[in-house]
Amino acid sequence: MSPTPELRAARDADIPRLMEIRAAVRENRLVDRAIGAADYRPYVEGGCCWVWEEAGAILGFAALDARTASVWALFVDPDAEDRGIGRLLLARLVEEGGRRGLAALTLNTAEGTRAAAFYRAAGWQALGLDGGERLFRLAL
Q1: Confidence at residue 29, expressed as pLDDT on a 0 to 100 scale
Q2: Helix, strand, coil % (nearest 5) of the chain?
Q3: Helix 37-45 with 15-24: angle, nearest 10 deg
Q4: Given this model, what pLDDT does residue 28 score?
Q5: Most-buried pick from 35, 75, 100, 103 (CB within 10 A)?
Q6: According to the model, what pLDDT value does residue 48 have?
Q7: Is 113 among the domain residues?
Q8: Is residue 107 part of a domain?
Q9: What pLDDT score was predicted for residue 31?
């Protein structure tokens, strides 16, 4: 019998898998800079990063940058898309933002992508462009 799927706080040992998921996405690929393990640590160690795990495999993760009141990351393994994992991770991230007393959250994502449609459907307000990406805001 498989372990129960779980939304849990990320651990340092999860970082290599988070990096794999981030590198595997089909949209919003990093082209201008590399993100290394050290970039993930402040979110993991600060209790602002969560993973969705099923049967011992991490299928997605989200990270809140509480300092800038923004979504640092929200990514799902391409093989696990369209199962609601992103919605669960986003709900946890938004909940944490509210718990930390943030008034709103922001994020940037490429316009015309499934990610942009995802955030619009989740109630985020599309604002102007920021460096060629669409800026979104959600009041908490």
Answers
A1: 54
A2: 35, 30, 35
A3: 120
A4: 61
A5: 75
A6: 97
A7: no
A8: no
A9: 47
Across 99-118, b (16+ Cβ under 10 Å) vs e yields eeebeebbbbbeeeeebbee
Q: What is the CATH number of the domain that holds 97?
A: 3.40.630.30
85, part of any domain: yes
> Domain of 21?
6-102
- On whether the pTM is more than 0.85, the answer is yes
Bridge partners for 139 per DSSP: 104
Residue whose structure tokens are 């969705």: 52
Residue 93 placed within a domain: yes
pLDDT tens digits, 4-18: 789 999 999 999 999
pLDDT tens-digit profile of 111-134? 889 999 999 999 999 999 878 889
H or E, element range at 51: strand 49-54
Residues in the chain, pLDDT under 70: 1-3, 28-33
Distance of alpha carbon 20 from alpha carbon 106, whole angstroms: 24
* Cα angle for residues 132, 65, 82 (degrees, 5° grid): 70
Report how many domains make up the chain. Answer: 1
In whole angstroms, give the CA distance from residue 103 to residue 99: 10
